[in-house]
Amino acid sequence: TALLLAFVMPLSIIWLIGLLRYRIEGHDEVQSLTTLPIIADIPMASDDVKTSAGIVVHENKNTQMDEIFRSLRTNIKFLLKEQQKKILFTSSISGEGKTFCAANLAMSFALLGQRVVLCGLDIRKPALGRLFGIADRNLGITTLLTKEKVTLEDVQKQIVKSGVNDNLHLLLSGPIPPNPSELLARQTFQQVISLLEQQYDYVIFDTAPVGLVTDTLQIAEHADCCVLVCRADYTPKSSFGLLNQLADEGKLPNASIAINGIDMSRRKYGYYYGYGVYGKYGRYGNYGKYGNYGHYGMYADSHYGLKDDNSIKK
Length: 314
Prior knowledge:
Elements: H1 2-20, H2 27-33, E1 38-43, H3 64-79, E2 86-91, H4 98-110, E3 116-121, H5 128-131, H6 141-145, H7 152-158, E4 159-161, E5 168-171, H8 180-184, H9 187-199, E6 202-207, H10 215-220, E7 225-231, H11 239-248, E8 255-262
Parallel strand pairs: 1-8, 2-6, 2-7, 3-5, 3-6, 7-8
Antiparallel strand pairs: 4-5
Helix pairs in contact: 3-4
């Protein structure tokens, strides 16, 4: 009996711990929760590499974070058909990093010489203005949506420079209205989007969490692809029930997943240790694809590696 208990008890504890882990941990777990394609695994960026607006993508740099966002950019271009250019970012709850991902993807496109406009469409809880240090809260799309008809000149008056790259412009949320859903349902919104498409190579929507309000589903009707951002050790596993349902119903067209906030410092513990996806020999470990000796690592034979790369929090 004692021998049986000694065998059963550890297994029971492991099973119980697994049961209590209600947040996603990484790539393999997300893959088990959804059939949507995972197009990016984004580690936590170090504070050393972040500049204004939380930008971690820089010109003429080959850090691991630069390469990861280049990879995201490439994957999104594969998802888009010819002439498609409208990319929507959302998440299930607040705090998963959708604005961070949207801003850095926009910067990555801008560094290619593409004209990009990043639209702050989380109208109830605006973040872009604060992120990019723009004090004027009266500028933005809600000012346009109150009109019956908008012109290109009207739109251009509301657009501001990002301050981080000449090719990256911003259309902020504007004053917070009492009726966001009604404004987004107006024909004026389609007019604004059409005018932006005429002027820019890529139009990126930073929207509200889809699990909290319906605004994002209205905006998604105008998007060519949707990137659903989740965050390691933060996003509840239960969120994927809603995300899968909305994608299956076509309410989030051409949807894919980006996993944000992977904590590389945890690779020595449990799931992240040894031969796992984040372990020493795993995809993100010391010898993995993104690790110290991997394809994009500090000592990689590849030309992507940098000896002084400190872009990822370790």
